[in-house]
Amino acid sequence: MMRKTSIAIFLAALSMSTVWISVPAFAAEPAIYTSWKNNIGAGGYDVVSYFSGVPAKGKAEFTADYMGAQWQFSTQANLDLFETNPKAFAPQYGGYCAWAVAKGKLAKGRPQHWTVEDGKLYLNFNKKIKARWEKDKSTFIMQGDANWPAILDK
Fold it and tell me: For residues 116-138, b (16+ Cβ closer than 10 Å) or e, as one string?
């Protein structure tokens, strides 16, 4: 009798574990790409500085919170400007690679591979991907806009 009870308990536990294993966990990706090491947007670069054509690293003393991420700036003036209209300065597609978003995928955008197009900042994964992006930016922007932000839920 004891053996049958033990087997029944074991089988019940086994069947429950397969239920838990077979149910996938879906979680939306964050709207802003940040490293797994911290919650800093644009890799710590001053997103306002891109619009002058000379990107600068931000400093921890000049920070702002926006869309769940922390943003760093090289000067108080840039921080103040960002705070007046963060949407105007934050990278498109949350700082994910713009070319990847256009292709229906998510990849990290790196602050060293950037473009300002029509007053908007776009980041790309690497030099090779940025070169692809540069060949047909307007089409990729249309595709990226169509995919964003629904791609976060895939």
Answer: eeeebbbbbbeeebbeebeeebe
Indicate the residue among 89, 110, 138 that finishes a domain. Answer: 89
Instruction: Give the pLDDT of residue 28.
Output: 85
Confidence (pLDDT) at 3: 52
How would DSSP label each residue in 35-57? Answer: -TT--BBGGGEETTGGGGT--EE
Residue 22 lies in a domain: no
Residue 1: its pLDDT value, please?
Answer: 52
Q: Which residues contact 96 (CB under 8 A, 6 or more apart)?
A: 33, 106, 107, 108, 109, 123
Three-state secondary structure string covering 60-99: EEEEEEECCEEEEECCHHHHHHHHHCHHHHCCHHHHEEHH
- The residues that bridge with 70 in the sheet, in sequence order, are 40, 65
Which residues constitute the domain of residue 149?
A: 91-154
67 vs 79: CA distance, rounded Å: 15
DSSP 8-state secondary structure symbol assigned to residue 154: -
Total structural domains within the chain? 2
Global confidence as pTM = 0.82
